[in-house]
Design brief:
Layout (H helix, E strand, L loop, with lengths): L2 H21 L17 E11 L8 H16 L5 E6 L4 H13 L7 E6 L9 E11 L24 H10 L17 H12 L22
Length: about 220
Amino acid sequence: MSLRHITLAALAAVSLSACAATGDSAKLAKSPTEQWADKVQVVAHPDSIRLGVHADGPSTNQAAALSDFVGRWMQAEGGVIEVQAPTGASPRMISGVYDLLTAHGAPAAAVKLSSYDAGGAPAAPIVVGFERFEAVTPRCGLEWESLTSTHGNDTFKNFGCAVTANMAAQIANPEDLLAPRNTTPVDAQRRTTVLDKYRRGEITASARDDQATGAISRAVN
């Protein structure tokens, strides 16, 4: 076979391999430690309380229950608090629940009022709740093999499982594993200050702090 035929055959083989790899480019092989991240599951379950409806508003016990509820909501870094009241419930009761939630620290924008059809049941409660997220970590150590007999020099089956499980268990809000949080708003006042200094030709950096210079202090003899 001539050199020209060999070159053409090699180019054809490269082209075919490139075509075959294009369809699998989105399915790249994961490392032994990355594969465990797919086995961490985030489960959502409601954290709610039921309040009996009173014509004059929430009772003392209900106010204490709402205080504890807001504390759990803050600790879990919960999202929307939904207040579901039966159709025709006392307006004073609904507004009282809303006022207690906001008084204990829940932002007004996080409290959502809605109603549901209780079918005329006189004891239908007001349901106050939010979704709490929990990270379910993989179980490690189910399969062990001899670590001294590696044969192909591959990692053992449990490699990376403990690290992934520990990291997932330590996350304060497992909801962060589902999606990143929204960015906080910019500091418009600071931005305006810097731009005004820039337009006047002044130094835009913050004032120098002598305590942040890192200079070694001189001891007094």
